[in-house]
Amino acid sequence: MAELETRQNRILEQLAQLKQQISSLKSDLNIPTTSQDTITGCFQVGLKKTSLPESLVITANPNQPPYSLELLQLLLQNEISLIVTSYLHSSVTTLPIPALQLQKTLENFVVSSNAPKLKVCLIWKMIDSSVDLMLTPSGVSGEVNLLRYLTRLTNTQLSYDSSKDALEIESLLDQCYLLVRSRTKSERANILQLFNKSLAKSTWLLGRNQASVVDVAAYSAIKQCGSSKELNANLNKWFQNCASLVNTKC
């Protein structure tokens, strides 16, 4: 229990630091600050109470759009409403079509009126990683690590710390990271084979009957590296299931 309290206090400290950083960034971007831009404590999310920030600031490389956000919006809509607003950093003159399409999907999503609101400030910026979540002192770098952070920050259907297959989830998330950075078709084939083994004859990865954080990460990684044409029939059916979820919400 003491360890849990220490961990919770550490998260609260990070959220307080995030609030200060968000305020500074909003000032730089000339975004109006309202009295509601505070950290809201004790939202009822899932089956436990947790502290949820009002806002998150994410920078994303327009050449590697974070497709995980569109699945997160849909899968968590009854637990957390993700309200995304996008901005262009001076390092980006125009958005590539895939990033522009993703931006439109995210901003046009109709959120639930009952679920707690989480504002996401998405800044398109030329960065070395695909995604950076602005936290202090070190921040969170990479889309997979962003997903890890969000699942630990909240208690939703995508959280997995207490799952019996948590180690397998961590391993597959690492493979998603490697897939985006793969350079050859052979490298991608080895990773896709692991996904196929995890899928087996189920609808979703890990042999589950509903989507998990691994499905979210894998879907985004495959879209980013353009390997959807390299999927076998089994994985392609799974990929189309993910895509149909996104198309349904549009």
From TrEMBL:
- One GO cellular component term: nucleus
Q: Which Gene3D superfamilies match?
A: 1.20.1050.130
UniProt cross-references to InterPro entries, sorted A to Z: AIMP2, AIMP2_thioredoxin, Glutathione-S-Trfase_C_sf
| UniProt domain AIMP2 thioredoxin-like: residue ranges | 55-137
* Coiled-coil annotated residue ranges, if any: 1-28
BP GO terms, sorted? translation
In this record, what's one Pfam family? Thioredoxin_16
Keywords noted in UniProt: Coiled coil, Cytoplasm, Nucleus, Protein biosynthesis
Q: Kindly list the places in or outside the cell where this protein is found, as annotated in its UniProt entry.
A: Cytoplasm, Cytosol; Nucleus
PANTHER family from the UniProt entry: AMINOACYL TRNA SYNTHASE COMPLEX-INTERACTING MULTIFUNCTIONAL PROTEIN (PTHR13438), AMINOACYL TRNA SYNTHASE COMPLEX-INTERACTING MULTIFUNCTIONAL PROTEIN 2 (PTHR13438:SF2)
Name of the protein described by the UniProt record: AIMP2 thioredoxin-like domain-containing protein
Which organism encodes this protein?
A: Hypothenemus hampei (Coffee berry borer)
List the top taxonomic levels of the source: Eukaryota, Metazoa, Ecdysozoa, Arthropoda, Hexapoda
